[in-house]
Structure to design on (495 residues):
């Protein structure tokens, strides 16, 4: 059996400046996709599933990019044409798995995934096609109509993307083997929610209920798409998808409707209270003091959710670091990392052991803060080539040249390429053992939890001004005519 693997994955923040261009994508073509075997990524999970099932993976092309602005139409059409051409030339196929995100927006195309899936369906005809997604997708019924099964990752942090891609391969394998075809249905809810972890609290509770409903309904899958609120498109919202065989339609739809109703009824529990930088630092210090009598205290993490590269922010924001410097935390604190290629290069030129005067961060826009005028000691340097150890375990990550700077006692890591902090690797690469610090600061909304939550005593979220703030009500909504909760208290479900 031959199953094609292809995809375009991008989380588009339409409030970002500029277009996302070809140079912003990393591209795996042909057999390079097969080199991801063993990695806990969607590509790696799909390749591994083919191996387990004894079928032949037919690698086409996968193009992905860091979350950023709207994708250039020319770039998207180029990738799409390449996928279609490779599928056309691949020979007879028994099925296809698309590895996508769910929140892709192209110039003139608000539903990247619907457009791509429709084109693949038109080319391949009646072969089973399934897709795996990030749970932060804004998905449509038009897209679902092109697929026979859809699988969003269940967890946030996304520690199960490889498992869900593997399930997509298994579904295609089963359908091709038995000559069956699944049906997909999307239930859109008129609500926006801030980023919600499933590693505790309301997110974990809702996921537990979803999995119970899925298990009792005999469906192929039920997925909770949290949605991606940092975009302005017509179909923005939160979604429940259900995939099922025709004979199981009634219990499958009932289970999906039950979960959608639960989401709506518990929506107030998804709301959060935001702390600015000074408030977050003060709260973290309270937690530190509460451990004063503990023999082996563990660090407190401050995550700056509002400047999360994983949602399209630049990663060079200075609000939280400024608050840490003002609080004179000294050697008790470390921060990894800020994105500032100019400073990283200056540190490399000057060398380890030197003292340099820098303007750190604040180079993208005023929203994320002004540059910090600092005198910094260059403690260590690194090439930035890391291997991920928690989420996406085993996958490579290239942060570009990195520097460890010491400013007023605080250890600050500076990297050259945009990314959020997923795990300890950016700290360890430059000789920082986080367990020796009271406060560990980083930029991420929730993915960091996979690498840090089990190591620290408390997590404090700093919501400073930024493109990924939890204050989602501040973003203008010009493309949708729907009433959306919490922006409109008159929003209702069913609409």
């Amino acid at each position: 059996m031959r199953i094609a693997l292809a995809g375009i994955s991008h989380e588009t923040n339409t409030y970002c400046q500029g277009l996302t261009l070809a140079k912003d994508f990393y591209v795996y073509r042909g057999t390079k996709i097969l080199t991801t075997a063993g990695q806990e990524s969607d590509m790696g999970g799909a390749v591994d599933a083919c191996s387990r099932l004894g079928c032949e993976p037919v690698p086409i092309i996968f193009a992905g990019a860091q979350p950023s602005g709207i994708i250039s139409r020319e770039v998207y059409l180029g990738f799409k044409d390449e996928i279609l051409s490779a599928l056309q030339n691949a020979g007879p196929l028994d099925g296809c798995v698309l590895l996508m995100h769910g929140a892709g927006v192209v110039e003139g195309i608000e539903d990247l995934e619907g457009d791509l899936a429709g084109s693949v369906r038109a080319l391949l005809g009646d072969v089973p096609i399934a897709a795996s997604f990030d749970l932060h997708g804004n998905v449509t019924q038009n897209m679902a109509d092109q697929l026979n099964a859809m699988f969003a990752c269940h967890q946030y942090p996304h520690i199960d993307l490889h498992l869900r891609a593997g399930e997509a391969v298994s579904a295609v394998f089963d359908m091709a083997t038995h000559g069956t075809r699944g049906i997909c249905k999307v239930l859109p809810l008129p609500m926006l929610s801030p980023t919600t972890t499933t590693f505790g609290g309301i997110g974990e509770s809702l996921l537990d209920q979803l999995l119970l409903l899925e298990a009792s309904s005999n469906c192929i899958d039920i997925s909770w798409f949290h949605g991606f609120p940092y975009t302005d498109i017509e179909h923005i919202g939160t979604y429940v998808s259900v995939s099922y065989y025709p004979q199981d339609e009634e219990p499958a739809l009932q289970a999906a409707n039950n979960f959608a109703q639960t989401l709506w009824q518990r929506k107030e529990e998804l709301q959060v209270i935001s702390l600015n930088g000074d408030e977050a630092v003060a709260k973290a210090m309270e937690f530190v003091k509460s451990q004063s009598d503990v023999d082996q205290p563990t660090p407190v993490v401050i995550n700056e959710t509002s400047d999360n590269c994983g949602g399209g922010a630049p990663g060079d924001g200075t609000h939280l670091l400024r608050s840490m410097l003002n609080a004179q935390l000294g050697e008790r604190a470390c921060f990894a990392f800020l994105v500032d290629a100019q400073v990283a290069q200056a540190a490399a030129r000057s060398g380890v052991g030197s003292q340099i005067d820098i303007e750190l961060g604040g180079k993208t826009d005023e929203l994320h803060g002004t540059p910090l005028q600092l005198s910094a000691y260059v403690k260590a340097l690194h090439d930035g080539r890391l291997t991920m150890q928690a989420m996406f375990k085993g996958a490579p990550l290239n942060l570009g040249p990195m520097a460890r700077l010491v400013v007023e006692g605080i250890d600050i890591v500076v990297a050259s390429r945009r990314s959020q902090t997923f795990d300890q690797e950016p700290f360890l690469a430059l000789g920082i053992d986080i367990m020796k610090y009271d406060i560990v600061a980083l930029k991420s909304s929730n993915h960091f939890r996979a690498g840090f939550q089990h190591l620290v005593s408390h997590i404090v979220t700093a919501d400073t001004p930024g493109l990924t703030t939890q204050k989602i009500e501040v973003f203008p909504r010009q493309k949708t005519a729907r009433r959306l909760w919490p922006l409109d208290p008159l929003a209702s479900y069913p609409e």
User: Anything to note?
Assistant: The chain has a mean pLDDT of 97. The chain has twelve helices and 19 strands. The CA atoms of residues 434 and 484 lie 41 Å apart. The radius of gyration is 23 Å.
